[in-house]
Structures are given as structure tokens and as C-alpha cells.
Queue: 2 jobs
Job 1
Amino acid sequence: MIGLILKSIRTGALTEANPFGRHAAFGFPVMDFSRCTACGECVRACPTGAIHATQPSPGRGIVSLSYAACIQCRACVAACPEQAISVSPEIEVCAHSREQLSRSASFDVDPVTGMGTFRQIEPGAGPGLADAAATLKARIHGRLGRSLQVRQVDAGSCNGCELEIAATTNPVYDLERFGIHFVASPRHADALLVTGPVTRNMEIALRRTYEATPEPRVVVAVGACGCSGGIFGEGTYAAIGGVDRVLPVDVYIPGCPPRPQAILNGLLVAMGVREARAGGESAAPPPG
Amino acid sequence: MTSNTASVTAALHVPEGAVRDHHPGELVVDVHPDAILDLTDRVSQQLGGRLLSLFATDDRARTGAFGVHQVWSLPQRQTFLRLSASIDPAAPSFPSIAQKHPAANWFEREVMDFFGVRPDGHPNPTRVALHDDWPGGARALRKDFPDDSQVPREPGDRHPFRPVTGEGVFQVPVGPVHAGIIEPGHFRFGVAGEPVLYLQVRLFYVHKGIEKRFERLPWRHGLFLAESISGDTAVGHALAYAHAIERLANVEVPPRAQALRVVLLELERIYNHTADIGALATDVAFTVSASRAQALREGLLRANDRVFGTRLLRGTVALGGVKRDLQPEDREALRSALRAFEKEFDSLIALLVDSGTFTDRVDGTGILTNQAARDLGIVGVAARASGIDADMRRDHPHDAYEDLLFKVPVEDGGDVRARLMVRAREVEQSLVILHQVLDRLPDTPCAAPVPDHLPPGASALGWVEAWRGPCTHWVATDERGEVARVKVTDPSFLNWPGLVHAVPGNIVPDFPVINKSFNLSYSGNDR
């Protein structure tokens, strides 16, 4: 017993005062569309279809990059012959819709060479981050206060996201100091933290868990799979896809898996305490 | 003909030439379905074989038949033996070996579920992978079943669990959504008061169609899918897949890459074992030790991050080697992180085993006897805690393990304590291994080039002793050199029946700690 007490005293507090702002060697890829020629190498290299290219009309091409599906494998960075894709150290990325996690640009495509010339960044569809945050805030206003009771649901994950979600409770991150607490039952929960490319075999359990959660329930999708189906795809015989195929999602936390501080950040965004940053801002070309 | 081929031919009483050298350390015998039972008996009795995997292939387009394959480990010969039988699609069935070899039980039922090829004489020929709302007749791994098929649900969702009768006897249903931050599965306890009479486990809630997905993705992208089979075994499964591809394409992995792969695999082992030891402390409410273990694990993950740029070691394995070399300063950072860890880890184990309140809960709890473990074909940590001395790093050396000195810790108790001690001693051995490797990293490139195309109509086995136990990937290509079939076997698939066996007789409140002592993967099992 004495040994235990001494051990605790010697160890001291391990909790990081500010768990945010740590940068990673690799966050998400950032595309400098002005250098892109729409050659398609990154599209072929990407294992999840996070980067894709379309030709809406002859002579015109669209290239888009979605963090919702990105598993941070870096294959695109190595594949790009123009070195137009760089790595961003930013990892506290989240958004209120899939569209907000996507960046697109249009290109004039030469009919002979098939090469594209950058034309412009395409505006994203749907409401922006601030508008979406205001809508969420209005819905939860006065109900959740400064705490968030969270029920985690693994709806088909590989368990990678669970490892990092569990890490948010360790002494270093200690998410309870932010008023966030994981609860054992959806009936005690304000929010569902859902992972996985919702499987056919978890769909019913997920819906029932949602129905058991009292209003105004907030749904947070975690990981590339939870945001988009990830490497497992959408609409296969076994995987339905992103959580929003089954439930309305309020916050998307991309990554494979997202790091503990990114998960913590996303939960604080769901509480209306922090503002979402969808990352990739430097993807916009320099003016002129 | 190698000496192995000759001795296996003799032991199996098959004609000369029937046993083929497929790849180094991998023999293949084509057998007639009627001979399966006799041959498996000989493999198990004469050759000391242990069943590692059993699966089917749909070769109807190429050969007009299904294939049913068994993969056995022959540890005394450092060889794997595959028995392959051709099954007539007009009468799709094969002789079941599950009666004599219970390790085949779930495998054979899975073949039935996904291929509609029936195991004749199986003692319990019911569904294992398919849920009750999956319509009969839809066979997901057949080639004529598109991977994006939208299969309607059959009405009704009541699973026929084993009934309980008698006064004071009742059932406790748990899951699939659990109280903690863990994966989904359904447990149904039959209890008489506190003691558990039996446990039924219903899994495959997180079945993602991974084996079908491999057939859809380009084979280079399969590596990323392998990393997501079980999130805590990213290196183990990525390596097993890479090994299979490298053997298929005859790629020689350079010595430095082999050494770095050992580093990755042992780092994965250490962080998982540390987490598991902490989870045992959590489940007996020993919070001081639990917090220490969590902090230690966080330190390891941060060291991974600093050195490899990734906490859970994803994206580190490449086909042909490793993605990122270890710089001298990284090597030093890793060494010092490991030295700091080592000291703290020893004191964590001392804290646990010196605490009567802890040992009271783990001693004699959840015993899996040696006989049961042998009969069920249990592997990995759980096997070694039940007195089975098996470890592929020594028995079928892969990567740089042949040149390394280490012990394989074995415990006889078969209880929670034994599984804890195997983990603790394996961490010590991992540190021994890591220091050996880091002291003398070979000076070669860290990856070899991989050809643009895989040979058509070929197959190979890849294997790894990952932290939980053996992971195997069997990869076959079609006539265009694309992936025709990947059979993934996670150690959890072999070990879940061990948990079911260890729980009865214990009290319900001890279930979490027994379950954690096995810590089996749901995702790896369900795929």
C-alpha cells in the first residue's frame, strides 16, 4: 500500500495541460491544384477513392480530394509527378458534412494530350462550417450545458478508432476534465460516437441504439470508415458505408484512425466549445 | 526432392510425386475428397500437424470445380502443408473433419455459409458467419456473386439460442453494443445464480466482406486493406499479406527490411501486451496499475509516432520491404524510449503480482486446460498460457527471426494469471529482440522492387506470429495475375472457442477479466 502511494506521488500528474496543437509528421494531403495537370496518377494510387476525377463535359475536368475517405496512406504524395501534393501537419480536422471535407477544382482539358490546365477552385456544396455550427448549436442550445455524455458504438470498425478513442481517456489526454464522459448505455447519452463502415449486421443495432438515445441526440462519425466507408467501400453486400447512410451525422472526424486529440477536438466541436477546422486551406492557390 | 518432401510423402502413404514443393517451407498435396479424413489423421498423428486454416475457392470458371483447402503447420519440419481437394459443383459437399479436429469446426461452417459447399458429417452444421436475416442460397464468396449485391433481409431476427431449463436457471444476454469502448458481439450466458453454466457467443456483427474486397481491389491496394483487418494488428496482417505477395512474385526482401519488420512487429507486440495488462487491472478495479499501463502504452505510441510518423504503425510495411528507413537519430530515440519503458514495465508487473487483491481475482480464473487447448487447436498467447510450446517466430521463422536469440515463454496454468504472465514475459523477450536488432541493422536497402504483375494462376501462403498469435494470408491469382482469392486467418478465429470453453464454472463478474485475458479481435474474426 505504501508502495502504491509512493509510486503515485513520484509519478505526479501526467496530463498534458493543452493536448491540442501537436502536429503530426503526416496529417492529411494538401493539393496545390494550380500545379495539378489532372493526369490521374493520384487517382489511380488512392486505395479508397478519396481522390477522384470526372469529366462533366468534353474539354472540362474536375479533380476532387475528400478527407472523409482519406486513410492518410501517402500514396498520392509519392504518385504525383508534379509534386502538387504535400503533407499537412494539421490533424485536428473535423466538419459538419462530407462536402465540407472535400476540395474540388476544375480544369480545361486538352483534347489531344489529355492534360489539364487549372481553371478554378470549385465552391463546395451545402452550408459552410459556420452556418452548420450555428444550426447544431441552436438544436442543442440549453440542453447539453457544458458536459457531454457519450455512448460509443462500433458499427463495423477494425478497432483502430476504438484504440484511439480509448486513448482519450488515458491519463495523458484525460478527456473527463473537458466535461466529456463515456457512458455504458445510450439512455444515459447525449451523443453517439460511431465508427466503422456500418455493416449490414450492425445496422439494426445502430438504429436501435440511436432510438434509445434521448433528444437532442448528437451523432459524431469517427474515422475514414465512419465518414465514408473508407477502404471497405460503400454499398457492398456487407458494408453499407459511412454513418450518414444510416443516421443523420452532426460532426465528422476523419482519419485512419484519427489521433486522440483529433477525437477530443471533434467532441468539443459537437459540444459547441471549439470551432471546426476542415483543414486543407492551403489548398487554395495563391492569388494571382 | 527435399528431405521434408520425402518424409511427408512416406508419412502420408501417398505415391511419390503427390507431395509438391510449392514454395520454400510450403508443401502441397492434391487429394481426392474421399481421402481427406485418412490424410488429416496422418497429418495430425504422424506429422504432429496443427490446423491453421481451412477454406474454399471457387475455381469453377478455370477447373469446373470448387476447391477445399486445409493448411497445416508441421512445426518439427518448419514446413506448412496444404491439402487441396476438388469438389464437384453438382454435389457441393466435402467430408467434415470437425468431429476429430474441432479446430475445423467454424472453418467448415464458414465454407458452407459463403460458398454453399457443405461439410458432410459435421457435428453442428449450422450457420456461423451468416446472421439469421441473410437469405439461404446467397453465397457471398462465389464468383458469380457481385460484391455490391444488395441482399434483402429475411424477416424475423430471433436467433435460436440453446434453451435453459430448471429452477433458478436463467439467461443473461449481453451485446452486441457493449458498455465499454470495445467491439460488438453478442454473449449469452446460461447462469444458475452467479456461476456460468455455459456461454454462447454470436459474432460476425462487424463482417465487412474483407475477403471479397481483396478480389475487387488492385493487389497493391490490398496492403491497406490488410492493415485494416484488425486495427491492433496492422503490422501483423500487413506483413502476412506482404509475405504472400513476395512469395508469389519471388521477391527477395533485403536483410535491413527484414530486420526493420522485426522491429515493427515487436513494437506492435509490446504496445498491445501493455494495453492488455492494463485492461486486466481495469477489470479488477486496480486503477493505479491501470493508469500506469495506459500511460506506458501512450509513451510507446508516441515513440512510434516520432520514429515512424504513425502511432499504430500503419503505413510502415511495404510490399518488398518497409516504407521508411530508420535514421541513426531515430534508432537512438527508439532505444532510449525502450530503456525508459523497460524500467517502468518491470515495476508495473511487480505492482500487480505483489497485490493480493489482484492475484485473488486472476489465479485459477478462466482455466483453459492443456488438453482442451490442444483439442480446440488454440494458438498464440492463449496456447502458450495453456502449456503449448508453439511460436511461428521460432517454428516457421520469417523475416529476421532465424538469426535472433529469444525464448518462447510458456506457462502451464491456463488461467488469467498464466495469460498475463505469458504477455509480461513476451514483452521482456521483445525488448531482448529489439535491442539485438537495433544493435546490428544490416546495411542494405530497406525495400526490394516488386514486379508490375503477379504471375497468373499462382498461389502462396504468407504467415506471421503477430502479438495475438499466427496471422496467415493465402493469396491466389487468376489467369490475368489479379487477386482471385485471399483467405485471411486471424488467431482470434481459432481462439474464440477457447474462451467459450474457459468461462463455464466461473462467476459472471469474472467474465470481463477472462475475456480481456484472451483479448480476441472481433474484426479479425468477422472480417
Job 2
Amino acid sequence: MTYNAGNYDVIVVGAGHAGVEAATAAARMGAKTVMLTLNLDMIAFMPCNPSIGGPAKGIVVREIDALGGVMGKVIDKTYIQMRMLNTGKGPAVQALRAQADKALYSREMKNLIENEENLTIRQGMVEKLIVEDGVCKGVITETNAAYHAEAVVITTGTYMRSKVLMGDLEYESGPNNQRPSLKLSEHLEELGLELVRFKTGTPPRVNSHTIDYSKTEIQPGDEKTQGFSYETTAFITDQIPCWLTYTNEFTHKVINENLGLSAMYSGAKRGTGPRYCPSIEDKIVRFNDKPRHQIFLEPEGRDTEEVYVQGLSTSLPESIQHKMIKSIPGLENAEIMRPGYAIEYDAVVPTQLWPTLETKVISNLFTAGQINGTSGYEEAAGQGIMAGINAARKVFGQDAVILDRSQGYIGVLIDDLVTKGTNEPYRLLTSRAEYRLLLRHDNADLRLTELGYNIGLISEERYGRFIMKKQRVEEEKKRLNKIIIKPSETINQLLEEADAAPLKEAVKAYDLLKRPEINYDLIEQMIEVNEMLSDDVKDQVGIQIKYEGYIKKAKEQVERMLKMEDKKVPEDIDYDAISGLATEARQKLKKVRPLSLGQASRISGVNPADISILLVYIEHGQIAKVAN
Amino acid sequence: MMETDTIAAISTPIGEGAIAIVRLSGKEAISITSEVFKGKDLQNVDSHTINYGKIIDRQTDEVADEVMVSVMRAPKTFTREDVVEINCHGGMVAVNRVLEILLSRGARLAEPGEFTKRAFLNGRIDLSQAEAVMDLIRAKTDKAMNVALKQMDGRLSALIRSLRQRLLETVAHVEVNIDYPEYDDVEEMSHDMMRESTKVVHAEIEELLTVAKQGKILREGLSTAIIGRPNVGKSSLMNTLVQENKAIVTEIPGTTRDIIEEYVNVRGVPLRLVDTAGIRETEDIVERIGVERSRQVLKDSDLILFVLNYNEELTEEDLKLFEAVRGLEYIVIINKMDLEQKLDLAKVDKISDGKPIVTTSMLKEEGVDTLEKAIADTFFSGDIDTGDLTYVSNVRHIQLLKKAKQALEDAMEGIELGMPLDIIQIDVTRTWEFLGEIIGDTASDSLIDQLFSQFCLGK
């Protein structure tokens, strides 16, 4: 029945944000890779916000880039606006956010992967996996093409058994009226994977010509040019603004009067939606005392008049959406080009995955992205690159690569998913990271370039530049520690201009920089300028010195955490044989099967006594081995 | 947990015996002790020697206790680490003070069963005992949890909860500014707002620590009511309990006679004779406020000592009291056994639904031992070593309060230095976590829950 469509090292199913990272990473590591997608015109498509980055998420994009991924490079070529967020706050929480030219992003990504060596791209609907003795060996499409490979990465996003909901309209469809993947999730269930039903939604898009922008507030991009990728050298200066308007009591009245017509409020039992991305209906119901909600108007690109109405995600009937839109200042005459809708889909319960994103029930099968219960392009891409790396490494017989919680937001994301699971679509927030001061936008390269290089995803040239930067930072810190600044009229004049207290006695430049109101630029005016230094290096020196005490404290915490991570749980551990474990802890441990005591300690329901008992048990095994 | 730091704990049941031992184990056991020890230089004494001296509180230069210190160097020790044992005077005040001093010098309070665990991990205990060690950890931890919970005053935990909520709201406020920088419905958190929040919480923690210093938290015990008709011997019972344990209570410095009398420690079980349902008010509690109300009052007690008169028949009042205590934790004390029996013991047995019944004569001091054992049995099932459990949980509370205070002071320093709020927030979160450990709530998901219930967020 089937025909042999080829033999590969790695198959990637899906070409969304997770899929493209997985496929390019595997291919660049030398794995012969094929990527299968439902529709070749939808590669790295953004079915919701035309935006990449933001707090935590923007840092993920930098991390992907430091590991050698593609998201940062492509958005840097296709943004219509770029902003650094939280500039008034500390360095740990600053992050870039880009508004994307949606169509251009997708085209640019397609072009990039089409020119990738080792990577074949095919259109096709995967319906089945080839599994032999619990090992995944390939996939079969609806056209009976059998692709064979050593490892398979599934990145099917929100397409599995997906349904679009709008008022009482309901039909089987992927996002944006794409074909849904109906048979694959059934097949995954047959293979023993547990699935869960999630939902998300998107707002209507309106025609820019019909918007009265004079009634809205302009939201321009930053003047300073900046990018996500450490390889970007040419920046886009011609930026397009977004616009801000608000809902009002009339909007809320329309929604309240028609709440029963909303697909998500009509009483039928539905999948779980994310709290952080509520529909406008949710917002009105849950916060009914709020007189208005923000609405951002975001252009979807340079060559389109479609504008994304951020803040108005809804599953109300189309007719009500018209009324709702027309109640908003600036949108009185706005024409909806595409209505908003809710979408319901199957996701894999992520505690069924190892921290490598390989499934526990089927070896050599990996899942990444929204299929694992996350939301957001960046979260998907972060998983995608890790799944691609680990799939390729498994094929080559190399050790798994797992980021811990102190190495990156990607580590936090994956550890949360596989250890704690999630009961709603998971979004990264800076507050999910314990060591957020270490997981900064500015040091993503320092954290992960070395790893990217060792994996084989960072070029020699880039690695050389990175080593140089690292060296310059260290040398400059040493230099500042040797320079003594003495109080003088010039110095104190400079300090006064910066609203800083004057010097009374001589101080090291290093120590002066520690004062919160003093930055590197000011110090530079007081000392001999080091012409070799780029802004990048200066920023880094400033941050590392200024927050030294806090960084040190965080690193000590990390060290304690890593000690626990180093205590490995033997793979063949039999939790039933360990007396003394609490019943709940035993069940959770059996399900999650943590790799280390550290991971075990983060499982909810496993308490310190259980960890002690586990430790005794593990050490017992080791002592027994030595005794033998 | 699996660190090789130095741990300390009281290793004798508190309140029993004339001597209490604080044990330390770990690399710094000897150096930490010698820092606070006045006597020979412990760093240079021979291993396995006992040394006389004093433990000094270095902050006040006061003598905490006169002690005998055993120094035992690795590996010939229980844990195969350096071990120090400090023999203090019996009673909980001196020994707790010594423990606190050691903790303030860098020792860490041992977890339940941790000495045994270390002994095992260092190969001191036979492998076949691994199972036993695990059972021990489980048993000790569960009991420590129970005791800690029982000991915690409802008001204390309520206060800590409210402080945590305040911190959580502050942190959520900072978080919403970070994760949703464009969200306009909330005023941007300022240094002044942060200063205000931290100040309030800091003052409350300081107040708690002051109270703790006076020994109030230390002495918090199981709230205990003594009830019974007039003249059944309630006062004698209380006096006997107090006298029996006098050595302990008189060691509490700076406390008034009133408070002392209300506190007793029976075989490691700390009892607090509570004012509200205590001896004076319960004189004729049922008569005065009726069965239902008195039930409410008595419900707040952890233990009720219900005294009957051996020399009188059961009265209507006695039966009402039985009704009032039904379902609660109580011990029936039949007093005045030196007099003629008029009480129907079979009937008492029947209506006291299986609760312990003890016969005593307070006058002749008979049956007191049995009563004390019954009290201990009620809370420890009698057969488990009370070990380092009862008061340690309180020392633990104080340690955590101190850590919380330190973290909050770090935050306050950051505020004054003008550090960014998201950095100050790190220390505020730590404070919140330490306070959470006191009440056993360390779920890190609460912040995210708070974020989404407090603010309307989304795209």
C-alpha cells in the first residue's frame, strides 16, 4: 500500500515555529532531515499576533539565536517595528519586541530553509507513525508515502483535531482555515500517549483604510536600531507605528448582552483556555468593574492593509463582532476583513516527555511546540531547537543536551512542562524563572554560545567574535578595578550633572560604577577611553559590576540547585520498592520519572521527606555497588 | 539537604531529665562551638574529651548556660563527621538558647532524622538498615509536621498569612509591570510604594521576633483547659503540674508569675493553660454560658483535662460537661481517690467513649505519673521518642523569621540605594518564601495565580 518516500536521519512533522527550528538545527548538525508540512505556503506562519518577543519571550529568541537557531535572524530581516521594553527597569527584565511583517517573515523563513543543506521539504499530511518495538522509525502520510528515519519530531501546533468556534458556528479546521490534522492524534492515543484539550483564540482583523487613526494614540518603534540576532548587522530603519485605543461601556454592553452567543460562554463544555490570553468576553466577565480595556492596532505587514486588533480576541458571532468593533473610538467605520474565532485542539500531556522532549512511551519520538501545551511562537521555537538538537544527537549516538533552569528561559520552560505539566496553555513569564537576574537579554550569548558552538550550530567565525567579546569584558573589568578616580572639580562637576553625590575621597572606577545612578558612559568621561570596546561590551561591563552582589547571590543559589541536579536518579529505579514514600509522591514520581533529585524536588506533591528517602535509597544502591 | 554543612539540634527529649544535649555534626562543628565557648580552646583539645565551660551569647556577652562539651573528631563518631555534644542544664530555655546561638553562628537546624541519615550516608550504619532509616525519616517528619502544626497558634499563622499576602500583592504588582509593560490599569510600582509595603511587614516581623525573644513563641504549647465542677481539685491539679515542672518554668527570664503558672511541660509535651478556656473562667463554664457556647470555647483547646470527684456521685453538671467535650481531645481525671468511693466508675467509663481515665489523689500526689504518661500518650502515642521534635519547630520558626527579616532588610537597602524594583523584588520574594516555610506553604505557583486574579491581562 505505502511506497518508500525515502530514508532520513530525522523527520520533522510540521513547519511552524517549532518545526523550522527543529529541522534547521538537525540539518545543520549534519543529520539528513526531511520536513513535512500540510501547506508549503504556511511555513513559520503567525496565525495570531504579528509580533515576536516581549518580556521573557524576547529573551528566548536571543537564547535560540545564541544556540544557532533561526528565529532571531529572520525577524531581524522582516520587522516593521522594534522596541526595547522595560528600559526603565533593571537589566534582567529588559526585552526586545518586534512587530513582524507576517507574510514577509513566512517567505523569508521559507527561503532560508529551502536553501539549507541536508534539509528536504515536502508537502504532506502525516497520519501515522511507524513504530517497531516501542521505537519510532518513520511516518506515513495520507498519500501513502512512508518516510523512514532514526528519529521523528512532531511539531503539529494547534492542528490536531482542531475546531474553529465562532458563535454557534463550529467546524473542523486548523488556524486560519487550514486543514486540521484529524487522524494523527487518534493514532498517538493508540500508541499510548495521553492527550488533553486546550483552546485559544484570535481577534478580528480590520482594514487599515477604514480606521480613523486621529482618535488613537501612536505607538512608535524605538529610534535606536537593535536586533535579536548576534549576527545581524543591517537594521531596518523605516518603521511603522502601532496605535492604541480603548473599549468603553458601549463595547461592554454589546458583549454582555450577547454573552450567551459566544462559543465559549454558550454552556457547552470546552477545552481549557489560557488565563493570560483571555478573550474579551473573559475580561468583561472576570473584571466587570474595569471601565475600559486597551486595544492595540497592529499592522500585519508592509504590503497589506490588514490590522490586528490586539485585546479583542473573541468567539462571538460575526454579527456581534461588527457591533463590538464599531463601538471603539477610531474603529467606528472599521471593516472587519477576517472575524476573530476560538480554536480548540489536542495537546500532549507534557509530563509524558523526558527533558530532552523525547516521549517516554516511544523511543526516538520527540514532540515540540504548541502540541506540548504551550502557547506563543517563541515558546514553540525554543522547544523546537532543543528537540531538533536532541533528535540529531540521538541519531549520532551523542549525549542528550538539557538546559537547566539557570542556563536559560528555554530550560525553565521545558523543565516546567515535563516536571509540573500544565493545565492551561503555558506561557513564559519572567516570574517563572528563579534566577531571572542571570537570564538576561544582554547575556544570552555569554550563557549559550559556547554550547551552540560545541553542538555544531555556531560558526567558527562567530565563535571567535564571541570569545573576543568575553575576553574584552573581563579585561575591562580588571582595568576598572585598577583605575583610581580622585575627587577633583572636573570629576565632581560630572557627577553633579548626573545628579550623583560628589566624591570626597579617591575611589576605584570599579566601585564608583556600582553606584546606581552612575553608568559606564559617565565613568568613561572620567578615565582614559578604551577605544577597543563596543557598546555591547560596555553595557556588559556596566551590568556585571553594578549588580555584582545580586548576581553573586543568585549564583550561590544556582550552585545549591545544581548539587541536587547532579544527584542522578537511576533509570531502573522501582518506586514501588521504596518503602516510606508518601502515596501521592510515589504516583507522581512514577509518572514523571525525574532524571535527578533536583527535578524530583520540583514535582508538586513530592515533599522534602520523600526526597530524603529517595536520596537514602539512591545512595544505598551506590554504596551497595561499591561494596560488591 | 545533602549538603555537608554543619547541622545542630537538641538531641534529648525536651523537658525531661536534668540534662539536655545539643548535638552538632559537620566540618565546622568544632569551630562554631569554640567561637561561643568560654573555657579551653576546643580546636586544640584531644578527640573524645569532655570540657567544662560556658556558652556565651556573643551579641550580648551574656552567659547562656554552664555546660560540658564533648568533642569527637571524625571518623570515630556517630555520623563519621566531627561531632560536638553540649550538655546543658535540663529544661527548654537554656538548651534552646544554646541552640539558637549556634544557629546564629552558621550551624543549620537539622531536619528530622538527619543525624541518622548522615550516619547512614557516611557508611556508619549497616546497609541492611536502609529501610529502617527511611521509615525513621518518614515517621519523624510526619510527627514533626504534626507537632509543628499543633504548636502553631492560629493567630500567628493568620498573621504570617496576611504578611505573605501583602508581599505577594507587592510582588505581583512588580511582575505585572514587567511582564505587561503596556498594561495601563495599574499605577507603576514606585520605590515609595515598595518602601511602604516592606516597612509594614518589617515592623510586624520585628514585633514577632521580640515576642519570640521573650519566650512567648517558645513557650507556646498545646492549649489546655482544665474543667470540672467547683472543688473537684482543679487548682491542685494545676499546682501539681506546675510544681512538677518548676525547674523549667522558673528559668524563663523576665516573665511574670502569671504567665509562668500557665505554662507547663509534661514529658516533652508543652501545655499552655489557656486563659480563655483555662482554669479561672471554666470554674462554672457550663452554668455560665451554656453547653453550646462552652463547647465553642473548649473547641479551641488542644487538650481538655476534665476533673471528676471520686467522692461524689455524677451530677447533672458533670453530664453537661461530658456533653460539652464530646468529640474533643480530653482526659478524664478522677481525683480524690484517697476518699471514699461514691462515683459510679462503670458509668464514667461508658460515657467517656474510650478516652483515657486516670485516677489520682492530688492531695497525696498519687497517680500524677500516670496522668503525665496519659498526656504524653495522647499526643505522641507514647512509644515514639520525642527527640528533637517538640521545641525545635519553634526554634525553626524563629530561624525562619530571622531569615525573612534579613531578606527584607536586603530589599530595603536596595530601595534606599535606588536599585531597580525588579531586583529589589528578588529579596521581597525570598522574604515571602521564608515566611511560607513557617506555615508549610511553599507553592511557587501562587504568584502566577495572584497575577491573573489581581490584574486583567491578555492580548
